[in-house]
């Protein structure tokens, strides 16, 4: 259906207890490019089915624009999900990593969403990032995973963002590992940075879709199809963790005790 007032196509939907509207945008294959408004249990939510990436040619201002729109809509907590390659040797394909912290590698090179004049309506010039991923929300996610019987494949770790679009060389992967990264991906950090800047509480979940080779003798080659295939395989489980998390989020009494 086409909204006459806008150039965004949309349609109404009802799926598995979630009701709302779908809006479509253009994004990378495997990302649906839809903005979904609806309810999980009695909680009103907005979902991005897909995101904008730096490697698609979007500026970091465009990549993070939805986060500021969510803030203006009254959103208080943002849950970011992504696919990433496992650098930590203990991680297995299909593991879910609760993101404890991140390394903003593009930010080191000046590709940072908060570069330029600071918009004081959203946050301060020099925001603290040492507590970007809320401790209380991380604990709730880990507790829920345990209750659901998923504790064998739910971990905590540090996510490192690279710009992409190529996957890492072995030398790059070794460097990221030595720097303290447990997984590597091409997204998320700009959105989290802007979310933290404007005072949103953040939970991050990263699905380990492939093992990143740190060894020249390994023959496996990562590709985007593998990433999509593992994402599909774990979609139901991730959905269960997320819906249970949202349903239990009222239990979080002191979300600010980070
Ligand atoms: O949006 P994410 O980061 O989950 O998308 C995944 C990771 C890379 O951007 C791309 C590579 O397969 O898909
Ligand atoms: O191995 C990877 N590297 C970078 N981004 C990724 N996204 C999924 N897997 C990977």
From TrEMBL:
The keyword Transferase applies. One of its GO terms (cellular component) is cytoplasm. GO terms for molecular function: purine-nucleoside phosphorylase activity. Its EC number is 2.4.2.1. Pathway: Purine metabolism; purine nucleoside salvage. Residues 27-247 form the Nucleoside phosphorylase domain. Keywords: Glycosyltransferase, Purine salvage, Transferase. It comes from the Eukaryota. One of its GO terms (biological process) is purine ribonucleoside salvage. It is an enzyme of class 2 (transferase). It catalyses: inosine + phosphate = alpha-D-ribose 1-phosphate + hypoxanthine; guanosine + phosphate = alpha-D-ribose 1-phosphate + guanine; 2'-deoxyinosine + phosphate = 2-deoxy-alpha-D-ribose 1-phosphate + hypoxanthine; 2'-deoxyguanosine + phosphate = 2-deoxy-alpha-D-ribose 1-phosphate + guanine. PROSITE patterns: PNP_MTAP_2. Belongs to the PNP/MTAP phosphorylase family. NCBIfam families: PNPH, PNPH-PUNA-XAPA, PRK08202.1. Homotrimer. Catalyzes the phosphorolytic breakdown of the N-glycosidic bond in the beta-(deoxy)ribonucleoside molecules, with the formation of the corresponding free purine bases and pentose-1-phosphate. Preferentially acts on 6-oxopurine nucleosides including inosine and guanosine. This is Purine nucleoside phosphorylase.
